[in-house]
Structures are given as C-alpha cells and as structure tokens.
Amino acid sequence: ARTHLNLGFASNRWTSDVKSVLDHLRTSNRSSLTTTARDSKSGRIFRNTFSLLQDASGCHIGTVILTKEIAAPRYVGFAAGDCRADLETLSRRLGGLLVECLETLSDVLESREPYTLGHSLRVRDLAVAMARERWGASMDLAAVSLAGQLHDIGKVAVSPDILTKPGRLTDEEWSIIRTHPVVGESIMQPVARLGEIAKAVRHHHERFDGSGYPDHLAGNAIPALARILAIADSYDSMTSVRPYREAISPSEAINEIQANAGVLYDPDWVRVFLKLMRRNKSE
Ligand SMILES: [Fe+2]
Q: What are residue 118's phi and psi, to 5 degrees?
C-alpha cells in the first residue's frame, strides 16, 4: 500500500524531488537526508529533512519530511507517507512523530513572535495545574498538557506581519487571526488519537455565554478541556504585553476572570482557578 498523509500545510511543489530522495534513502544505509531545494517560480529556498521510520525489525514503514524555509527562519510544512506497514503501526509511529513535530513547530512559531515567547508552555502548566486541582494527580493529564502546549498551533497559517503588528488590527486582520483554532484542529485531524485535543484546540476561544468563536458554543457544550484552556489562555494573555496593548497585573487579571465567571468562563473552573491562585500567592 502506498499512502500519502497530508498533514495540512505541506508544499507539494517538490514532489518529484521527494521521490528521488526516497529512492536514494532506501538503497543506501542512511536513515535521514537533508536537501536544499529552490522553488523556481517564487525563488524561495527550502531545506527538507527526510527521515525514514522503521519498525522494531528495521523494516521501512514510512517517511517524515520536515520542510523549513531558509530565508525566513520558520518551518513551512511537513508531510509523511510512503507506507509499507500495516496502517495501525504506521499511525501509531506517525502519531508520536507528529506530536514531536508539532511541539517543535510550536517552539518555532513562538520564537518568531517575541510577544508570545513562552505563552504556550505557561498555558500548558496552568491548565495542567487546574486539572490536577480538580481531578487529582492520579488522572492522566497528558491530553490537558498537549492541548495547552499546542492550542495556538494554527497560528502557523497567520502571517507574522499580522501577529506582530504594532497598534490596532483591522477587521480583516482579526478575521485572519480568528481562523487559527480551526486550522489548528485540521493540522491534528490526521491522527485519530489526538481527536480530543484537536477539539479542545478548535474550541479554546469559545466563551461560556456563547459569544466566542468559531462555533458560538455555550456552557457545557464547550468541551471541558477547551473551558480550562479559555481561562489559562486568557490569564496568560492578559498578564503579557501584546503588540496592541500593555499587560495588566496578575491580581487585576485574576479579578477580571472572577468577574466573568459564568459569563465568559465556566464558573466551576473559575473556582478551581481562584483556589489555585490563592494558594500560589500564599506559598
Ligand atoms: Fe488562541
């Protein structure tokens, strides 16, 4: 079987190059190879790293291609495919690899935006702390952790010019930014076991009263993970400087979230958040 899994934002311009590299990799003993390719139309230069995936017996089960545009220091896409093993093995291996790629991508995304440096990891840590507070440490919090870390991954589709624009954004620019939860979900969709996380990513800007986006969900129709993320994300955003506004103090941000319990945020999770913040303060 030959399968090509498009992970959502891969360039297909260098398909013929991909084939010759894969043939070369298969006949040599190397497990990875880096090539540089220039797109003749746009003149953009890409560095592609091809890595072979092997199962425990050394059998080739697939290939991951990570593409980085050289002139602009950011990853522009990656793809995986060329499946020769059973789909279940492949999807497990690809799932693990996809998560690693997405974590790398998230780091790269943040590093191009000084304003959000560390934001994903802070949201992850706060979301995990809230979930642990309410559900207990014995619960598996891996999904909360990954959803927190990757919630803004869809910003890969938003130009850095918009993300770092000083001053007010136009309505059109806001509408481009507002595509990021749906883009984020679509990036994760190929991996079935990321389903719950993909949903949390899609809905992290929904608000408890239905005033959020993209689907205007309200109350418990919003997935629990997304209701946790909404609070953790808002708190960290409010306490960080953004290109279009100053930061507010942690205590002001806490008051803001408390004042919006049951309006913008799930009141039960706000209680958990407040308890956590009070304890952190007294420690
Ligand atoms: Fe977001």
A: 85, -10
